[in-house]
């Protein structure tokens, strides 16, 4: 039987708040910024979230499904692409950093989670792309944040 996260990522079931993956991916940037409990569903880890007790915990079978199921892979890439747009790290953005490019912002934790989750799920190239994107703004971040990101990259 598929886990709740696998069902969610296949687009066949909701997250803990009743939201479908397609719904979250269609949110505008303001909603992505304001809501704080979706990121754990888009980019889960194998350990509990300190901020969302309803967050899924990736099992070995979840990771295996993500690495073998083409629908899950496509949806992970869609979630990744949406977050790149949110962070202003795509070719179709104007190239100016958004508000998260500063010394302290909750998005720094989200970026750490995304990096770790992508690597865990087998998306090393995507993780590297995000890391390279945020590294363009290195001077804006404290050393501790940059160290978290380096650690997330392995």
Notes on the structure:
The chain is mainly α and 154 residues long. The chain has one domain (4-152). It is built from 9 helices and no strands. 31% of the residues are buried. The mean pLDDT is 93.
What is the averaged pLDDT score?
Answer: 93
Please state the structural category.
mainly alpha
Question: How much is the radius of gyration in Å?
Answer: 15 Å
Share of residues in helices = 40-55%
Number of strands: 0
Total of DSSP H or I helical runs spanning 4+ residues: 9
What global shape is seen?
Answer: globular
Largest sheet geometry: none
Low-confidence stretches: none
Strand % is under 5%
N-to-C terminal Cα separation, in Å?
31 Å
Assembly status: single chain
What is the N-to-C succession of helices and strands?
HHHHHHHHH
Quick summary:
This protein is mostly helical and 154 residues long. It contains 9 helices and no strands.
What's the helix and strand layout?
Elements: H1 4-9, H2 21-25, H3 29-34, H4 39-42, H5 60-68, H6 70-86, H7 106-120, H8 124-135, H9 143-152
Helix pairs in contact: 5-6, 7-8, 7-9
Features of the shown structure:
single chain, 154 residues, mainly alpha, 9 helices, 55% helix, 0% strand, globular
